[in-house]
Specification:
Oligomer: single chain
Distance between the termini: 69 Å
Radius of gyration: 34 Å
Helix content: 55-70%
Shape: elongated
Largest sheet: 2 strands, antiparallel
């Protein structure tokens, strides 16, 4: 391994000098090629030397010519390896020096072991913006530290790559030269990797380490990757067929009992190599079409199941970052193949198709997980204006364990096929990898809105009283999706817009949306994401009203805009509380469920959701904090026949939340406590209106959208 200190202080001129020296040796040896036969053998023959001794001598001298030729080839290869290593080391050092220079430019220091340190300027330490400045410096320091780490890793990979190449090209014989040295560079390394990969399970421990090093160092290089894929050969199979065979073999070895971790590294980097080679159509249309044709063919299963497509999608999901064009092409072909096949489910994909844990043989699961890491690919693949993929996956596809998914535990359900589909939907509709840390994407484009609208409409049912029992694996993704469209949800539930939102252009019936929120709400963390996002949206809208809004206008009436806001926000929070009431009613006798639900909804204990939300101003955030705190104070799951007659009184946490937000805004507008409490004032009028609109929202949601009694 190469350390920061070694890379920072190393003098690589010796490596360059060695490369030049070996090039000189190769040149000298090349000059000797054929000289023995020409000068010595012919001289003896002209002198008339004959007999057994003469024949033996001639053979030996001709062999010497062969040795010189092989020695020249080895020397040429060693020179190429060292030249490549010197270039790689120099590039890594240049990256390191540039990062250090950038750190110094930002008045940061870099310690001898590569740690990046920074301090706030003295004049900023007591400044109100000091924390923001600190956050900025911290982010810059982390970025520079990452560049330093990458430079060191680059040098370490070059060192390992050169070591493997030198050992391989020198060979192990002590009496003869290596007849087939590869030389240096990614193409030579690809040929080394190809030959080692062909040994598969018969690799020695040392050979496996060499293959690991070659794949780790080169998998992201296009020349290496294309050379490797074009050169694969497995039992006479070449090209895409050989790739799918190796995918199965190395995936199996990665889950075996011997050197599993090493084989797992090779398998993952084969995925990276496939991603690198196919990026921007790098393998060509003919090769890609051949890959899809190979994936459609039944594989090596004795029962005739198709295990080629599962081998392909498992490789896509292993590690590589594939571009959207390749992912979309594979995904659309898989949907077309599955939709057109007479066999379905386990009959098509084999008995592992229905596994909920362990090896899951549904190729759609791995495809969806790979899609979820590329939101643009997910969006293109699922856009109903571009294809019928979403329609098939929502309405026609048979999913593993469909109809029994509600019995699965959350960790199991989140990792199965339907959970992976949920992640792909979340990526497509939000523009974020569900397992990444990207900021919210705004605005949502038309394709994102189409996917969101069609998905929610499908799962929302078509009649009052239809309460969708969402598959467990979809609850968390759907909660995040609805939270990401908080402004649209506010408009559809709170305004009279006939299901058409203005912000993102969603087209979703109000009752269908509420029924999906209800389906989500069996997962309290998913419901909390929605509630928090709506709280933030309401606080943002409330903050937009100027201070004079909280005083009567010249006609002695409140501003119509703020009155409209109260009606809208009250109905939104009422709808969420109506959803809560249905959850608690349907789990009336399950005390464990009720306690768990409330515990996970308690902002006092848990804080804000992990779902990324847009950045808001300090006062908006304070209103959110005040509101959610009041909501948590009002959590109540008591159920009895008397209180069910008026659900808004039983589940009044949302009402109290909105009232506290209005009071906080009135205080910020400069009103005194007496003015806020005045019966003739605007705040009291608004607080009274909250009760009316909130009660309407609760009861309409519970009784109309959800069909409660």
């Amino acid at each position: 391994m190469v350390s920061f200190k070694e890379l920072h202080e190393a003098d690589f001129s010796g490596v360059s000098d060695a490369a030049e020296a070996w090039a000189g040796v190769a040149k000298a040896l090349t000059a000797l090629d054929g000289r023995v036969t020409k000068d010595l053998t012919s001289t003896a023959q002209r002198a008339g030397w004959k007999g057994d001794a003469a024949d033996a001598a001639t053979t030996a001298m001709q062999g010497m010519d062969g040795d010189f030729k092989q020695a020249s080839a080895v020397a040429t290869a060693l020179a190429a390896i060292m030249k490549t290593a010197a270039e790689d080391f120099t590039a890594a050092r240049r990256d390191l020096d540039t990062a250090i220079h950038d750190a110094l430019t930002e008045n940061m220091t870099v310690s001898a072991d590569g740690q990046v340190n920074w301090t706030l300027p003295k004049e900023a330490r007591n400044d109100t913006d000091g924390e923001k400045l600190a956050q900025g410096l911290r982010a810059k320091a982390e970025a520079i530290a990452a560049r330093l780490t990458k430079a060191v890793e680059k040098a370490a990979a070059a060192d390992q790559r050169a070591s493997v190449a030198l050992q391989g090209d020198i060979g192990t014989s002590t009496t003869s030269f290596n007849p087939t040295p590869y030389g240096g560079g990614p193409v030579a390394d690809a040929n080394r990797a190809k030959d080692l990969m062909a040994k598969a399970g018969s690799l020695s421990d040392d050979q496996l380490k060499q293959l690991q090093a070659l794949m780790a160092a080169n998998a992201e290089n296009k020349d290496f990757s294309t050379t490797l894929l074009n050169g694969l050969n497995y039992g006479g199979k070449t090209g895409p067929d050989a790739l799918l065979e190796y995918s199965r073999v190395y995936d199996g070895l990665a889950h075996g009992n011997h050197n599993a971790a090493g084989y797992q590294d090779v398998y993952k980097n084969l995925s990276v190599a496939l991603a690198s080679a196919t990026r921007d159509g790098g393998m060509g249309k003919a090769w890609e079409d051949g890959l899809l044709a190979a994936a459609r063919r039944p594989g090596g299963s004795a029962a005739g199941y198709n295990d080629n497509y599962p081998a392909l999608t498992a490789l896509l999901n292993a590690k590589g970052s594939f571009d959207k064009g390749f992912l979309t092409k594979v995904g659309t072909d898989l949907v077309d193949y599955e939709r057109g096949s007479k066999l379905k489910g386990a009959d098509l994909w084999g008995p592992d198709w229905s596994n909920a844990t362990g090896h899951q043989g549904d190729p759609m699961r791995d495809l969806m997980q790979a899609m979820s890491r590329n939101p643009e690919a997910s969006k293109d693949f699922l856009d109903p204006a571009a294809n019928k993929n979403l329609d098939y996956l929502l309405k026609a596809r048979q999913w593993p364990n469909q109809g029994y998914e509600h019995n699965q535990l959350d960790p199991v359900a989140r990792n199965n096929s339907r959970g992976a589909f949920g992640d792909a939907l979340e990526a497509a509709t939000t523009g974020r990898d569900p397992n990444g840390n990207q900021p919210p994407v705004r605005p949502h484009d038309a394709a994102m809105a189409r996917i969101m609208s069609d998905t929610i409409t499908h799962f929302g049912g078509d009649s009052a009283g239809h309460v969708t029992e969402l598959p467990v694996g979809l609850r968390r993704p759907f909660g995040n999706m609805i939270a990401d469209y908080a402004a649209d949800t506010y408009e559809i539930i709170g305004k009279e817009v006939n299901g058409h939102s203005e912000t993102s252009g969603l087209v979703i019936d109000r009752d269908r949306l509420i029924r999906v929120i209800r389906g989500v709400s069996d997962d309290p963390e998913a419901f909390r994401a929605i509630h928090y996002a709506e709280s933030q949206e309401m606080a943002r809208r409330l903050d937009a009203y100027p201070a004079d809004t909280f005083r009567m206008d010249q006609t002695g009436h409140p501003n119509p805009g703020i009155e409209g806001y109260v009606r809208e926000a009250g109905q939104v929070l009422g709808a969420l509380s109506g959803t809560q009431s249905d959850v608690m009613t349907r789990h009336h006798d399950d005390v464990v469920f009720q306690n768990n639900w409330q515990a996970k909804m308690n902002y006092h204990l848990i804080g804000t959701p992990l779902t990324p939300v847009p950045v808001v101003g300090d006062f908006v955030q304070r209103m959110v904090d005040v509101g959610t705190s009041e909501w948590a104070n009002g959590l109540n799951s008591k159920q009895d026949q008397e209180t069910q007659a008026d659900l808004s009184k039983m589940f009044n946490s949302g009402e109290n939340q909105l009232k506290q937000m209005i009071v906080a805004k009135a205080e910020e507008a400069g009103l005194t406590n007496a003015e806020i409490a005045s019966t003739a004032g605007v705040p009291q009028k608004l607080l009274h209106d909250v009760s009316d609109s909130y009660g309407t929202g609760v009861n309409q949601t519970y009784r109309n959208a959800l069909g409660g009694r």
